[in-house]
Design brief:
The complex is a heterotrimer. Chain A contains 18 helices and ten strands. By secondary structure, chain A is of the alpha+beta class. In chain A, the strands form four sheets. Chain A has a three-stranded antiparallel β-sheet. In chain A, strands 8-9-10 form a three-stranded antiparallel β-sheet. In chain A, strands 4-5 form a two-stranded antiparallel ribbon. In chain A, helix 3 packs antiparallel against helix 4, helix 4 runs antiparallel to helix 5 and helix 5 packs antiparallel against helix 6. Chain A is globular. A four-stranded parallel β-sheet of chain B has the order 1-2-3-4. In chain B, helix 3 links the parallel strand 2 and strand 3. The radius of gyration of chain B is 18 Å and the shape is globular. Chain C is of the alpha/beta class. Chain C is globular and about 55 Å long. Classes of the chains: A alpha+beta, B alpha/beta, C alpha/beta. Chains in contact: A-B, A-C, B-C.
């Protein structure tokens, strides 16, 4: 056999392509990274997203304005309350109405609770991915306590649909303030515990420090917001720069990093939890009582009984008195409507007592719920920006004067960060993808919508 | 002769029962976590609700090592081939749990992007409804799954007994999306 | 300072309209002038929009004509008070005709230095769905433009890598257009349900 000429195959070095995802243990969420490797060094990366595209924007156009609310829950499902209120804010500003002061305080409190749960999940999950499983267990434990609070207020743990255009679904339950303070004390202990476990941990610091670096200029050019941007040393927080609700009355600090690496972003998130707790405590201390008109004769009535009796026409007992309902939801036992809803009756659903108790309330409810009638903002457009846990959550709502949104666009904060991901990981080692991706806090529902 | 086979069937029945008992307490699950339900999955798996009590505490992130596929969250048409590929890679015997209403029926995402229930793509043994299901609900589903495992039953493949038809096979081309053309 | 007016004075040939609605400033631009104005927005010291916060698109195919968007009554009205529309204090106009220009590209800019925002709308006609890409000006434009191409089918000239981002390559059509039926499925695997 004739000798083969020396092919290039014997000594050739080639880059290897590695396919991470869409279902990969270290990717919480479904995203596909196609990584080009030279040994262990990442030379190039392509990000494929869209595996959780659920057509949020198309679905929003199908029903009335309040029907968008459940879909917004499922955008960033780790902090759904912030999305709810962001969408409410856009439609309210489009309508040109303001919600009551008590409602604004409630929105601030609930947003901040949501932000803490989000940061707990983010830090816990990314710590787990680089080996610190204990931290994950501790942080989920703390999140569970906060979810119990959320459940008492909204009636659900995760997909809460608590926001309403012109208000919130129900007032805070009895004893909420004391309960929250107690929970926050416990959460503080957990955060401190995790801080002790992680912050000075040699292994953790070595994997986080100096990886996933992005400069200020590139971060701004990519449109990154939130803790990710603040980790690069830019003081930008929509709560401070363009305050909405009652954030301008709260005193809190905006933590920033200086290197723009994973470790700084971790520290920023840890500190933000503390700042959120400060905000909640201030808001609880200064929340106004608001008008709560419960007649002294008002009887507490189970909601199902009232519905059944109203259907049968047996309304003589509660026709003239203000009846206090006792539905499944704790917060709405308090005759709260005037306190947490805008006085604008073209917008706010009437209280259940009115819907079942008098014909005006029933008509008002019917007119707002029935297709083709409902809530009708004037033709126009509005872009509302609220500070989500990942960055700026923007809702761009276009109305044509009808009772359904003509177009709802959501600006997802982690979309911009994922766009920058190739730049973050190129040049690092393969193993550095894990902490970097963890600090991105990719939320599929928000990224792909 | 007749006595022998009856003895044999008694033996195999007992063996199956023993195997089923063993399998139901050592569930190696593959969490195919996509969406919101993943948050409740986390809550169920960690110490507060503690899935470990049911022998299902140790997720395996390789389909080759798993015997129960937990499909947690919405499956879009883009993702469905991936789900099918993972199911095909799992070794028999295998079970599938549809976690959350999106996997059961598509939920309220009735649109161009989502699969209306994963049972059009892979067989499903246990449906856990809820959006997302509460952890108690999940544990209930898990116990029902254990009963099913103990009986040795599992669901039928919607794509036929011969497995996946050729025209439904998805080529594995990791380089297909590459931008390396630049 | 009114940023939209400043742009109108600087580029009178490109600006179709400059408006303020609900306290938000909007400039409607011709697509030929987009690149020039974008560079000016980024580099001018008074504007200094260093962040392209969001880019989306609106399809005006059925604007104001759908069944559910029947015209609201004006006072005096026989309706109950809670249905009577309030007198409109501020009106909104698109700036161009919905028949001539089917799409609007909507850019939201933010300036980290001055803490102000601006919305730029670029009407696009169905016959010429190509728009200059802003990838060279802001890095964030890359993925946003891919998304607009995917969802609305508007091409961006000069984009380095314009392919689908949320949907798969086998998908035909652009789902967020108003004439794409919401339930038209194109499954890769499994039955057509």
């Amino acid at each position: 056999m004739a000798a083969q000429p020396l092919g290039h195959s014997a000594t050739e070095t080639r880059h290897m392509f590695l396919n991470m995802g869409p279902s990969h243990p270290a990717m919480h969420g479904i995203v596909q990274l196609i990584v080009e490797l030279d040994g262990e060094r990442v030379m190039g990366c392509d990000v494929e997203i869209g595996y959780l595209h659920r057509a949020f924007e198309k679905e929003s156009e199908r029903g009335p304005y309040n029907n968008v609310m459940p879909y917004t829950d499922r955008l960033n499902y780790v902090s759904p309350l912030i999305n709810n209120f962001g969408f409410c804010l856009a439609v309210e500003r489009l309508l040109g109405i303001e919600v009551t002061e008590r409602c604004q305080y409630i929105r601030v409190i609930m947003s901040e609770i949501s932000r803490i749960t989000d940061h707990l999940t983010c830090i816990g999950a990314s710590a787990m991915e680089i080996g610190a499983f204990t931290v994950f267990l501790y942080m989920i434990k703390a999140r569970e306590w906060l979810w119990e609070l959320v459940e008492a207020v909204t009636g659900a743990r995760l997909t809460i649909s608590y926001g309403r255009i012109g208000g919130v679904k129900a007032d805070l339950p009895e004893g909420f303030a004391e309960w929250t303070r107690r929970v926050l004390e416990e959460v503080r202990k957990v955060v401190l515990e995790c801080d002790t476990l992680l912050t000075r941990n040699r292994i953790f610091a070595d994997r986080m420090q100096g990886t996933g670096i992005i400069s200020k200029e590139r971060a701004i050019s990519y449109g990154i917001t939130g803790p990710f941007l603040r980790g690069s040393g830019i003081v930008l927080d929509t709560r401070k720069s363009q305050p909405y609700f009652v954030y301008d009355r709260m005193s809190f600090d905006i933590p920033t990093g200086e290197h723009g690496d994973n470790y700084d972003r971790y520290l920023v998130r840890m500190e933000e939890m503390e700042q959120s707790m400060r905000i909640i405590e201030q808001a609880l201390a200064s929340i106004p009582a608001g008008p709560i008109n419960i007649d002294s004769e008002g009887r507490v009535l189970p909601a199902n009984v009232m519905v059944d009796e109203a259907k049968m026409g047996q309304v003589a007992g509660f026709k003239q008195v203000r009846v206090t309902l006792d539905p499944t939801l704790q917060g709405s036992t308090r005759g709260p409507h005037e306190a947490v809803y805008s006085s604008e009756r073209r917008v706010a659903l009437p209280a259940k007592e009115d819907t079942y108790g008098n014909i005006e309330g029933l008509m008002n409810h019917f007119k707002l719920i029935m297709l083709g009638h409902g809530l009708r903002p004037p033709a126009g457009e509005y872009y509302s920006a609220v500070e989500g846990a990942n960055g700026e959550v923007g809702f761009y709502v276009v109305s044509d004067g009808g009772d359904r949104p003509y177009r709802v666009r959501v600006h997802p904060p982690c979309f911009a960060i994922m766009a920058a991901l190739p730049e973050l990981i190129v040049g690092d080692m393969l193993a550095d993808i894990i902490p970097t991706f963890g600090s991105v806090n990719m939320i599929g529902g928000e990224l792909d919508r | 002769m007749v006595a022998d086979t009856s003895k044999l069937s008694w033996m195999t029945t007992k063996l199956d029962a023993a195997l089923g008992w063993a399998r139901k307490f050592s569930i190696f699950q593959y969490p195919f976590v996509t969406a919101c339900c993943g948050m409740e999955y986390m809550a169920t798996a960690t110490s507060h609700y503690d899935m470990d009590r049911f022998g299902a505490g140790f997720p395996r992130f390789s389909p080759r090592q798993a015997d129960v596929l937990f499909v947690v969250g919405t499956i879009s048409h883009k993702l469905a081939p991936v789900l099918r590929r993972i199911y095909d890679q799992m070794a028999d015997p295998k079970w599938v749990v549809a976690f959350g209403v999106c996997t059961c029926t598509g939920g309220f995402y009735d649109n161009y992007a989502t699969v209306m229930g994963i049972d059009t793509v892979v067989p499903v043994d246990i449906y856990i409804p809820g959006c997302p299901p509460r952890p108690e609900n999940v544990l209930d589903g898990l116990m029902k799954l254990q009963e099913k495992i103990a009986q040795g039953a599992s669901a039928k493949d919607p794509l036929g007994p011969a497995g996946r038809p050729r025209e439904l096979q998805v080529p594995h081309r990791p380089e297909a999306h590459l931008w390396s053309a630049k | 300072m009114n940023l939209a007016e400043a742009i109108r004075q600087r580029f009178p040939q490109h600006v179709i309209a400059a408006r303020i609605f609900r306290g938000q400033q909007t400039v409607v631009l011709k697509r030929e002038g987009l690149l020039d104005v974008a560079r000016y927005l980024r580099d001018d010291a008074a504007q200094y929009f260093d962040m392209l916060m969001d880019l989306s698109c609106v399809d005006y195919l059925k604007f104001g004509t759908a069944q559910h968007s029947a015209p609201t009554l004006v006072t005096p009205s026989p309706l109950p008070y809670y249905m009577t529309p309030r007198p409109v204090t501020e009106t909104w106009e698109r700036g161009v005709s919905n028949d001539d220009y089917r799409f609007d590209l909507v850019y939201h800019f933010y300036s980290t230095a001055h803490n102000h925002r601006l919305r730029v709308r670029v009407p696009v006609a169905m016959a010429h769905t190509t728009v200059p890409s802003l990838t060279g000006v802001w890095a964030s434009a890359d993925w946003y433009e891919r998304e607009v191409w995917d969802m609305f089918g508007i091409r961006f000239t000069g984009h380095p890598n314009l392919r689908r981002i949320l949907m798969y390559e086998e998908f035909t059509g652009h789902p967020l257009r108003k004439d794409y039926p919401v339930r038209r499925r194109q499954p890769l695997i499994g039955p057509m349900n």
